[in-house]
Amino acid sequence: MSRVVVHPAVGTDQHQSSLGGLFFGAIGVVFGDIGTSPLYTMKETFAGPHPLDLDEMHVMGVLSLIFWAVMCIVSIKYVIIIMRADNKGEGGSLALLALLRRGAAGQPGIVSLVSVLGIFAAALFYGDSMITPAISVLSAVEGLQVAAPQLHNVVIPLTIAILGVLFMIQRHGTARIGVLFGPVMTMWFTTLAVLGFQNIAYAPHVLWALSPHHAIAFILKDGMVAFLALGSVVLAVTGAEALYTDMGHFGRLPIRLAWYLLVLPALMLNYFGQGALLLTHPGAVESPFFHLGPDWAGVPLVVLATSASVIASQAVISGAFSVTRQAIQLGYLPRMSIVHTSEREIGQIFIPVLNWSLAVFVIALVLGFQTSSNLASAYGIAVTGTMIIDTVLIALVMFLLWRWPAKLTVPLIAFFLIIDVSFFLANSTKILHGGWFPLTIGITIFVLLNTWNQGRRLLQAGLERDAIPAEDFLKNVSSRIVRVPGTAIFLAGVSGGVPLSLLHNLKHNHVLHERVVLLSVIIDEVPHVPPERRVEGHALGSNCFRVNLHYGYMQETNIPKTLANARYDQLGFFYEPLQISYFLSRKTVVPSSKPGMSLWREKLFAWMVRSSATAMDFFHLPVNRVVELGGQVEI
To answer: CATH fold of 19-335+372-453, please?
Structure first.
């Protein structure tokens, strides 16, 4: 069994060398989620499950909370601090997990804590990736009820149709339409800024809400009401983690520039413009965003908002594909069929089973919740949970890797935790009204990720218990066995034992090929492994070789391509594709009462093994040159 040690996928747009190209690329991909938050944040705060009175104190207090939440969580925590913690340029919870596991080597307690937190953050992301397309597209299409109230009945069918088309085109990739993402999102943020600026002119005193004393006065006066309002205010920062997750695609500097120069000003102008609108026209509370523009702009604004929401949804779906590939590579998910949709961009991938699973859940959410207001109750739990985990992980980075002094680190982390926990507790009041969904999805995915990872360890231990050292076995056997022409490559683990496929081949065929290669795939905890360090091989004697292929967790594990590009001195033999046969071990897991996992988890792991994609598909092996031999392993 080959061992895949993976790390989060590396940036796919590194060929874009110009800062301008990366700047606009980041605008088109990174900020879609947080950029569509103005569609529903103010509406949910003043017309949601815990509506606030439309008076100056509440409007100014909410605007102040939104501004300082965005500044503290996004501008300071993520953009300035967390984005410093890159793993060879990559970001995201799994990249942070890999970075900390290396930094905490030799401290098993911290490694275990980091693993649990990193896995759970990744699991929560899947709940977020289901809710984001549903609430973004639905809230945009609901603008039709403002522009053309008679079209109320088409909102749900039109939303489902848009989402259906979105998921159907995933298998074709986004290379062709991706070039539109930057310009469309730039137009979107420009529109946010213009609409907001125009409305601020009618009540310019809303700008005084930039002072934090308005937020403090709101909290001190209304107490529990202000606390519940945090559950809606947090919608303004959903998508903040995308800045860190997508760092490997565009780089730290372009994302920071895009945030500070365009996205942040546009968002703040729009939120303050909505605040001014609510003070001057309280009736606009039903949909403050779509009432910002003149009547003639209703339909164009719906079209633009829908386009921005589709782009935001596309970014989340692509992110789910990327995180899944990273989890597979790092050994937290079974192999899945991965289709590359672009010949030039290795990061553009399509995972059929994940795509259609997301489609079912997203459409079910739209049908089940019916409105963006109902969906907003389900939003926030996963986001705030991830924020808390990120704060804990970055605290460990500060102590273990950066060696920041405690007198600086402790107050800073305490400050962030107070904010994150406050938002999480405020959202916990929504659990019975929809918040249960992302929690259920997160816990379910966490169990799957953890079960697969632990099951692989038990399976590997079972294989190694009675394993025969490959070097000794080949030296003793090769001289007494008939050798036939050709090269046989046996996918093997990294423990050095004889793979089951080799044992079964000898048992049934009583021959060895004239050249025998034991090949292991190793996923290193870095995004990319350079070509010169990709292949390492050495001779075992009797024309037998051991070859290790190293990949980063963001790289495609294409064995034939890697071998074809390897040099003779790396392999120890000449690679001749037409003379090679690949032998794979197909293991059947047998659950048992042995110490390890509980029986139900062992049965779950056995099912996951049966459902996983074959090594032939995952490693891109030629169909007509693969021999698969099976065996049973008890765990």
So the answer is: Amino acid/polyamine transporter I (1.20.1740)
* 460 exposure class (CB count in 10 Å sphere: 0-12, 13-18, 19+): buried
Output b/e per residue, 559-598; b: 16+ Cβ within 10 A: bbebbeebeeebbbeebeeeebbbbbbebebebeeeebbe
Tokens of 27: 């605008």
- 8 Å CB contact between 11 and 250: yes
Cβ(544)–Cβ(514) under 8 Å? Answer: no
For residue 295, what are its two tokens?
Answer: 């009547």
Question: Whole-model pTM above 0.85?
Answer: no
The helix or strand, by DSSP H or E, that contains position 608, with its residue range, turns out to be helix 599-611
Helices (H), 330-351: none
Give the three-state DSSP class for 517: strand
Q: What is the DSSP string of 168-213?
A: HGGGG-SHHHHTTHHHHHHHHHHHHHHHHHHHHTTSGGGGGGGSTH
Q: How far apart are the first and last CA of the chain?
A: 15
Paired residues of 634 in beta bridges: 590
User: Which position has the token pair 């929560």?
Assistant: 124
pLDDT band (50, 70, 90) for residue 84: confident
Residue type, 42: M
Q: Pick from 502, 493, 503, 507: which is nearest to 463 by CA?
A: 493
Alpha-carbon distance 462 to 493, whole Å? 12
Q: What element of type H or E holds 10?
A: none
Averaged pLDDT, 284-303: 87
Q: Are 173 and 342 in contact (CB under 8 A)?
A: yes
Q: Sort residue 92 into left (φ over 0), alpha (ψ -120 to 50) or beta.
A: left
Interhelix angle 108-141/352-369, nearest 10 degrees: 60
**Rounded Cα–Cα distance for residues 326 and 329 (Å):** 5
Angle, alpha carbons 184-274-192 (nearest 5°): 15
CA-closest candidate to residue 312, choices 462, 133, 170: 133
Across 185-194, 394-403, 535-544, least confident range: 535-544
- Domain ranges for the chain: 19-335+372-453, 467-634
Which whole-number Å values give the CA distances from 573 to 533, 536, 564, in the listed order? 17, 12, 12
| Farthest-apart Cα atoms in the chain, separation | 93
Indicate whether 187 pLDDT > 90: yes
Q: What are phi and psi of 537, to 5 degrees?
A: -140, 155
Radius of gyration of the chain (CA): 27
Task: Give the CA distances from residue 547 to residues 203, 217, 483, 559, 584, in Å, rounded to whole numbers and listed in that order.
Answer: 70, 67, 20, 11, 15
d(CA 191, CA 289): 11
